[in-house]
């Protein structure tokens, strides 16, 4: 059934209406003249809206009624499509130009509701599969039998204490997320080192990814069906104890073992060497941290390569982190002076820093200078790993910063294992 004719042109016969349409689209006719000719009492700009729609060969997808096309303004391009609508059920199909619009007929509304429900079902099903796989791949079930100190290597013990102290969570089981770069948590000296620490503890079964507490966006299911996770988006949980009290007891036992040097038997074989290696590692990491700070402070690029690492490692064989940091500061300062004097690029100036550090180290050793290092910069607080390592595991305190890493300082023999 065709749409009703507007009352303002109801006095016209079908033939007159057909002629009216033809006259309207003949641009040689003025609209005011057309209104006068057909005795239509409306403003000229309203005439198009009175024109009856044209019927098309298309049918409504819901009620199979004929679809009608609205009349375009005669000033619009002839190629511009107009909306189609069903006069029977009110369904509308918008022209491409208005494809962003939404039909609100009863059928379309119901279809969207069903589609949204199905989409939600599929999304929930997908999330359940992802979380289940994530728990299986990256998580660990909480043990019925708790870990003991004998289940930890000494490096893992240091890392675990650092992680637990850096955690912002009150719970000893649910740890939440950790931030990169030590922005909030300050676990280690860099994002890379924090990533390695989290992965090492996860691989050791000490912590796991809390798949069912993590946002689904923390996981990525690749096109090849490989599941991975974003290390700083997922939530973590400890998996070494079945409850809070047991976890607290174990952490206290580890702290006491370090504090009293009453090491478990298996730490006594290579624990000193492991702590020495850890001391060297984080002396280098802190040196790199300060190198970045002093270069970026002077707007020089930070891009350490094998040469820089070799120079710093060599310096730390004979000097403390405190002394090496002073050498880094002097080399960075000299690089800026060189750039200003010679007019070289910032990159060129930064490339002179490793060589300058090496020369400072060689000169101090050759001259036998009493080379006093720097105090810590208040803008560069110690990471939690360094705190645990220097203060608790090594029991060196500030000497961990002002002493060159050496095995002798670590090898103070611990007491015998209490179990012996």
What would you report as the Rg, rounded to the nearest angstrom? Answer: 38 Å
Helix content: 40-55%
How many individual helices? Answer: 15
Range of strand content: 5-15%
What does this structure look like?
The protein is an alpha+beta fold. Among the domains are: 7-106, no CATH class; 261-420, no CATH class. Helices cover 48% and strands 7% of the residues. It is built from 15 helices and 9 strands. The strands form 3 sheets. The protein has a 4-stranded antiparallel β-sheet with strand order 1-2-3-4, with no helix packed on it. A hairpin with a 6-residue loop joins strand 1 and strand 2 (66-69). Helix 8 (267-297) packs across helix 13 and helix 10 crosses helix 12 (353-367). The chain is elongated. The model has no long low-confidence stretch (mean pLDDT 91).
Write the layout of secondary structure elements.
Layout: H1 14-25, H2 31-37, H3 47-50, E1 54-59, E2 66-69, E3 84-86, E4 92-93, H4 106-138, H5 154-166, E5 174-176, H6 191-203, E6 207-209, E7 219-221, E8 227-229, E9 236-238, H7 244-260, H8 267-297, H9 306-316, H10 321-342, H11 346-350, H12 353-367, H13 384-393, H14 399-402, H15 407-410
Antiparallel strand pairs: 1-2, 2-3, 3-4, 5-9, 6-9, 7-8
Helix pairs in contact: 5-6, 5-13, 8-9, 8-10, 8-13, 9-12, 10-12
């Amino acid at each position: 059934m065709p749409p009703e004719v507007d009352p303002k042109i109801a006095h016209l016969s079908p033939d007159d209406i057909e002629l009216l349409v033809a006259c309207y689209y003949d641009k040689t006719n003025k609209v005011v003249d057309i209104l006068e000719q057909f005795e239509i009492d409306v403003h000229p700009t309203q005439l198009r809206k009175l024109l009856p729609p044209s019927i098309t060969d298309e049918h409504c997808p819901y009620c199979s009624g004929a679809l009608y096309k609205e009349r375009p303004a005669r000033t619009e391009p002839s190629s511009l499509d107009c909306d189609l609508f069903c006069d029977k059920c009110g369904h509308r199909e918008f022209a491409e130009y208005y494809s962003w619009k939404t039909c609100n007929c009863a059928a379309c509304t119901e279809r969207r509701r069903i589609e949204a429900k199905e989409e939600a079902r599929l999304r929930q099903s997908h999330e359940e599969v992802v979380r289940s796989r994530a728990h299986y791949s990256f998580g660990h079930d909480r043990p019925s039998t708790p870990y003991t100190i004998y289940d930890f290597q000494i490096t893992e013990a240091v890392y675990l204490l650092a992680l637990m102290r850096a955690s912002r969570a009150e719970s000893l089981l649910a740890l939440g997320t950790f931030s990169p770069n030590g922005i909030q948590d300050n676990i280690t000296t860099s994002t890379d080192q924090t990533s390695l620490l989290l992965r090492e503890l996860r691989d050791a079964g000490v912590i796991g990814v809390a798949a069912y507490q993590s946002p689904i966006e923390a996981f990525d299911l690749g096109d090849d069906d490989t599941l991975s996770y974003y290390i700083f988006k997922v939530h973590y949980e400890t998996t070494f104890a079945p409850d809070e009290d047991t976890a607290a007891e174990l952490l206290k036992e580890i702290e006491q073992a370090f504090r009293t040097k009453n090491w478990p038997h298996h730490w006594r074989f290579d624990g000193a060497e492991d702590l020495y290696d850890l001391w060297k590692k984080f002396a280098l990491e802190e040196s790199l941290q300060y190198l970045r700070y002093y270069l970026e402070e002077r707007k020089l690029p930070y891009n350490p390569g094998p040469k820089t690492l070799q120079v710093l490692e060599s310096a730390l064989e004979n000097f403390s982190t405190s002394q090496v940091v002073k050498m880094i500061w002097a080399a960075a300062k000299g690089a800026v002076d060189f750039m200003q004097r010679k007019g070289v690029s910032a990159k060129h100036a930064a490339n002179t820093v490793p060589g300058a550090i090496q020369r400072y180290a060689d000169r101090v050793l050759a001259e036998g200078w009493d080379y006093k290092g720097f105090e810590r910069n208040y803008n560069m607080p110690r990471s939690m790993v360094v705190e645990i390592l220097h203060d608790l595991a090594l029991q060196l305190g500030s000497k961990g910063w002002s002493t060159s890493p050496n095995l002798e300082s670590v090898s103070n023999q611990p007491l015998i294992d209490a179990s012996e």
